Amino acid sequence: MTGTKEAELTSAVMKYALRCLQEGDQPALREMNFGPAEVQALREISMGDLCHLESLRAHCLDVALNRDVYWPMMGQLKHRRESEELQHALITADASLDMMQTFFGMSGREYARLRKTLLVNVTTGRPAEPSEADIETLWASWRQREDLVKDGLLPPEEYLRIHEETAVSLRAIWRQTRNWLDYN
User: Is residue 162 within 8 Å of 155, Cβ to Cβ?
Assistant: First the structure.
């Protein structure tokens, strides 16, 4: 017999409750409204009982959404997703390890893994020096964003925008702007 979505939910919650019991997390059990009798019944559940539970068509749960927890959680997930998308865009645009470490604390191993996953062509050595015209274009683009600079850095998405606007290599942009900051 195939399980229902209700049975899947009940099974997942019961497994969670069993884990709480095993780890001695009594507050979590109380929060789920498990009293002493329900905890004792949990102690008696066998593996076979869990398998049968998944075939039931009813559930014993009173599920409610806690909006005070839900919306901050959704905000955090959105922030993480946007950060990962930005990291992927930067790496795809050939951001250097130094840049990724500065903005995201990324390790060399994670950087290499993402480059491989995103199928970024591995460059060796230093990127070509930008031409004088590229440096002038880059300087003008940098100057337009001066009000966004904090602690000598633009937000990472601005480096990506400069790359898109100027067609200058992201590695060269990072190195050139870091040089300007070192000399000022």
Answer: no
State the Cα–Cα distance between residues 93 and 13, nearest whole angstrom: 44
Tell which residue, 71, 115, 76, has the closest CA to residue 92: 115
Neighbours of 2 (CB within 10 A): 6
CA distances from 72 to 16, 43, 78, 85, 150 (A): 23, 35, 10, 20, 27
Give the separation between CA 146 and CA 4, rounded to whole angstroms.
58
Closest CA to 142 of 165, 119, 126, 169: 165
Calpha distance 45→49 (Å, rounded): 6
CA atoms within 13 A on the CB side of 7: 13
Q: Check if the beta carbon of residue 10 is closer than 8 Å to that of residue 59.
A: yes
Among residues of the chain, what percentage have pLDDT more than 70?
Answer: 95
The residue type at 24: G
Record the pTM.
Answer: 0.73
Dump pLDDT digits (tens) for 54-89.
Answer: 777 777 888 888 899 999 999 999 999 999 999 999
